[in-house]
Amino acid sequence: MSETKEKPASETKEEKPAKHKLFGMMAAVVPDKPLESDDDVMDAAHDHIQDLQDFKGKAQEHSKKINDLMDGNPELASTVQDMMGGKSFRSSLAKHYGPEHLIPSEGDEDHADFVSNTAARKKGIDDRQKLEDEITANAGSSIDAIKQFGETKGLSDEEAQAFLAKIDSNLEDIFKGKVTPEFLQTMYDGLNYEGDLKTAREQGEVSGQNKKIKIVKDKMDGDKLPVIPSANTVEPDMPAQKPSWMEKKLADRKAKGL
Question: How far apart are CA 241 and CA 243, in angstroms?
Fold first, then answer.
């Protein structure tokens, strides 16, 4: 009887299944999604194809609207064509449009929209300029406040920069609409610091007063001489305990001879 030879450990290792042929493509498309099996690859491919189909449908819809717009406004199409050829917007516009095309007369159907949009554009320019002026005016006082704060807290230049970097990071998240639990905790602690400090101070005062009262009471109790019971000692009368409802029930049955 021949003996069966055992295969070396290197030959008995479980072979890994071959990866799907779309694995490399989908790994590049969804790098953050784990693709551990062929099913994962196929699911990712299905989702990607669905996204492409949705994008294609929207692109075709927008393309049709643009084509209809260009067909109805040949001057606009020529203007865009010149711009695509390297001409500036103003020179292309001047080639195909005149002032009479750009500024409607009172009574034209788009005159009201023209006036409203012109006013809105001017207001936007004025608001942006006011904001820029305000930022410039605040810059000097803000720098002074930062320096004074660092000196008051005894911060080194490195510590101050790290502190300001943290503030910048939080503000950047806020501008992006991102709020983290850490930011909320920081804001809560800062905004409620005075109230928490007052509460802690009041609790500390009450605790201190209670300790003083206990010390005085213990001292008074310690000054009293212990009472030694004797034959002449009169025990104080203890208040009679009220009978329970069960005791009352049994007393009533006894009185009735039950």
Answer: 6
> CA-CA distance, 203 to 206, in Å (whole number)?
5
Distance spanning both ends of the chain, measured CA to CA: 100
Distance CA 54, CA 62 (A): 13
Which pLDDT tens digit goes with each residue over 116-162?
A: 999 999 999 999 999 999 988 898 888 888 888 888 889 888 888 88
Q: How far from 175 is each of 124, 145, 165, CA to CA, in Å?
A: 20, 23, 15
Write the CA distances from 7 to 16, 42, 159, integer angstroms: 18, 36, 63
Give the tens place of pLDDT for each residue, 52-74.
Answer: 999 999 999 999 999 999 999 99
- Retrieve residue 119's tokens: 């006013």
Q: Which residue has the tokens 């803000």?
A: 142
**DSSP single-letter state for residue 8:** P
What is the distance between the alpha carbons of residues 205 and 147, in angstroms, rounded to a whole number? Answer: 37
Distance of CA 210 to the CA centre of its chain: 44
Q: What is the pTM of this model?
A: 0.43
Buried b (16+ CB within 10 A) or exposed e, 118-143: eeeeeeeeeeeeeeeeeeeeeeeeee
The answer to whether 26 touches 45, Cβ cutoff 8 Å, is: yes
